[in-house]
Input
Amino acid sequence: MSKFKKKNAEGTPAISTASLPDIVFMLLFFFMTATTMKDTDLKIDNILPKANQTAKLHKKEYVMYIYAGKPSERYRSSLGGSDRIQLADKMSYPADIKNFIITERASRNSEDEKYLTASLKIDKNVKMGLVSDIKLELRKIDQLKVNYTTAQGNPVE
Amino acid sequence: MGKKRGAPPEVNAGSMADIAFLLLIFFLVTTTIGVDQGINRLLPRYEDNPVVPNINQRNILPVLVNNNNQLLVNEKLVDIKDLRQTAIDFIENNGNGSCSYCLGKRDPKLSDSPKDAVISLNNDGSTSYGTYIAVQNELVAAYNYLRDRECKKRYGMTYTEMDYIYNDPASKATEGLIEDLKPKVEKIQDLIPMRLSEAEPKKN
Output
């Protein structure tokens, strides 16, 4: 009788959590290597349209980003409700694209300049008028390589 | 003191997991996963007075998009689902019989050969960007379909793959890779040139 009693009192041994930090660190390192840092804080809505005839963008150092869209809810009172362009962290007008590209080019190796691509991240509800203004500015400054950055999916559905 | 002398007390590592979780959550929030992808296009060079080329009407496929995001192709209302096939039929129509790799029906109303075929895309200023991308996607898909088919037949590799490697800055590292691909890529581009012309949208 006393034999059984003793066993009950012992209970199941606690699961060792000593390896938990190792597991979490492993996850941490995975995410640190597999992801890239966000470098711009978007002040606009930016839901990309879908497309499936896409190519991957090359390394980040060969890409510059031009964003466009409606200012998001919390900025709408100060920035208005019409479509705007955002370059790096600044809200801009099409005329500012020229200087932006010159600075972007200057910050890179001149050898890599021919690989430099302008990635257009434009919200799907932006009107084409603004998009063609952007394209016209890009053509004027001879930045002819563009990538209409999209989400993956079938646009027809 | 009541404490015994001897081995120093062990550091409690119980909170290590919490610290690691904190770091993990920080990285999850501040980073984005995956690479960007999109449709690569080359814009035409800017000219003050563009020359208007003289092109036979049958070699142009006019695609008009209005402000209600409706499509008008060759003066017919077309659903966007049918745009890709319409474009493929137009490009490889092979009207004058000079294209040995085309499977077209030789319709007298459509293009002479892929080298002559031009797709003219015309937007309204208030067309939405989403529709524009959908149309671009379908037209690029039509060209990619024909180029991939031809490239696969000749070199056993799709054009999309080949073009990506050719344009990747990382390919510079492999000796002779770009030199090897260059004539192939150019051959396909010559056989089926992507002639997608875009007019300035009408302002209103």
Q: What stands out?
A: The first strand of chain B starts at residue 31 and ends at 33. Strands of chain B lie at 31-33, 37-42, 60-65, 71-73, 76-78, 118-123, 196-198. The mean pLDDT of chain B is 82. Chain B has five helices and seven strands.
